[in-house]
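Risk register update: the risk of archive-format incompatibility is retired. Evidence:
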Amino acid sequence: MTEEKLNFKQILPLVIIVFIDMLGLTIIIPLLPLYAASFGATPFQVGLLAAAYPLMQFIGSPLLGGLSDRFGRRPILLISQTGTFIGFLILGGANGLIWLFVSRLIDGISGGNISTAQAALTDSTSERNRTQALGLIGAAFGIGFVIGPVIAFSALAISGNNYHVPAFIAAGFSLVSIVLTYRWLEETLPPEKRKLEHPTAIYNVFGRIIRAVRHPKVGVLFVLLFAYQLAFSGFEHFLSLFTLTRIGLNASGNALIFVFVGVILIAIQGHYIGPWSRKLGDRRLIYMGLGLLTLGFVLTATTPRLPVPWYDKAELQEELKRDDDHDGTSAEEVQLPDDENHSWFGIGWLLIAMVPMSIGASVLQPSINSMITKGVDATETGAFLGVSSALLSSANAIAPVVSGALFQSISSTAPFWAGAALVAILFILARRLIQ
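Archived output:
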């Protein structure tokens, strides 16, 4: 393998394994609120269910990352994938709300698939092409987020809205990923390169996180990653509700917005990030990502309140009333735009805003993770990437609560203005602290 060229043949198994894992996950994510509601869950319980996975992943990711540094990537990846498979099986066979929680807790605590796969990629790359390789993991994410929901809703349509069916399909994809890992993936961390850390140090998850944040070379990168994800996760969770109240987009319209974002993410992380990282370096890519995200947040927050040309307020109110019993959204609580001044301008503005948002998000996380791997000892890569994943998970659990409070108590634009302010501050701090 040369310093410049990425050995696609060597990393292809990892990318495909992550893609199949993501298919299983993205089949389930859109259905969980409806699945929970079918067992009589309240909106608060739905929120707890959504938080269960990232909260357990906060514990599981650094633990599995440390274990992969000691015992190798392949066995830990197989263990985490098996946990995901068991979680999906329990989800498919659930006959009550408690089993949904059990399934997500098991999947979360074993959800070190991605951080372990990233560590294996780090083992197989040089510093010059690592960002491109990590970007390919992001592209696999993007493709999964486009295809997974399509599979889910197709399965529901064929099965007559039987929520157990998509869960078993997700389990099937998870089983395929286990077989591929077992048959196809070679160990990337030989015994002589493993860190013979004392087992008690591996299991001290919170101590590991504190040590990572205090690391003199990469500690600021972990803080940056956590704070950025706080802003971006709030954007992800409330974009659909924002477009509903701002330009009158229903679920189908919002699906197209997310597909648009997914296509940009795939293009950037699948192709452009490699040449950009070699030309600009990780540090400048981080600046670029934060600057573009700030612009994207501002453009999103200033989206004109102009409903799309096909908007019909009465029809959309009826649609929301039909869905009241399913997702906890009350038609009376949603302030829809007036049924006048229809225009393409509002949605056109929003699509323009999605371009810098998507590009910024696409380059930022791979660049930060790549820079982290270059600043730590090679024997601790898995542990530090596990901490990275844990911090992302904790931000994903906190952001919906904070953004929801801002959306409800101040205005629909408040989460996006808050995101713009936070990312702008991060941009200034990054310019001063990241060398």
